[in-house]
Amino acid sequence: GAVVSQHPSWVICKSGTSVKIECRSLDFQATTMFWYRQFPKQSLMLMATSNEGSKATYEQGVEKDKFLINHASLTLSTLTVTSAHPEDSSFYICSARGGQDRFEAFFGQGTRLTVV
Amino acid sequence: QKEVEQDPGPLSVPEGAIVSLNCTYSNSAFQYFMWYRQYSRKGPELLMYTYSSGNKEDGRFTAQVDKSSKYISLFIRDSQPSDSATYLCAMSRNSGNTPLVFGKGTRLSVIA
After folding, report:
1. Taking CB atoms and an 8 Å cutoff, what residues of chain B touch A99?
2. Which of A51, A93, A100 faces B95 most closely, judged by CB atoms?
């Protein structure tokens, strides 16, 4: 299957600092990428949808100024958690779909963020 | 009513058993159906994907879609301890740039 690479796999940061998470589609052009947040033993919660070259669409209740999403190319999307606080600690996962010719969505390995 | 319903389990079976995992959905516009396996602290891994109704088999896994009943299933034959994970069903209306709608996931334990 297609490969989506997410980096870093885990990060610990101090409260008030910003953290950037990268998501790359390695072998296909991802016209659309999705960012999810997952709490322990819970399902995936969609945060935002990003299309290459345009602004991300955020789900209701997700602060767009706190969770900055950039999708500058067909293979790279980034999520920046700005001014992180302990309540932002979570598991963040990206996903990519390749457009009309393939409908499956592929996921990155996830990033465990701990804010201390 | 949630768009996709999935029993969260946990489901515990002995090694070698046939496992049946199911989801029901309410939106008749869904056409694309996927099953993912997620191990603890890892991203979901695509197991099976189907378009519209019918069956699809891949090794020990069989996916079934019954659009008339709005019901999808994943069967795992000869289950192994390594199959112990959370299984998520997912679906969407189209193949393009819309997000998938997920079930809550079923936690499966296969006991050796």
Report:
1. 95-97
2. A100
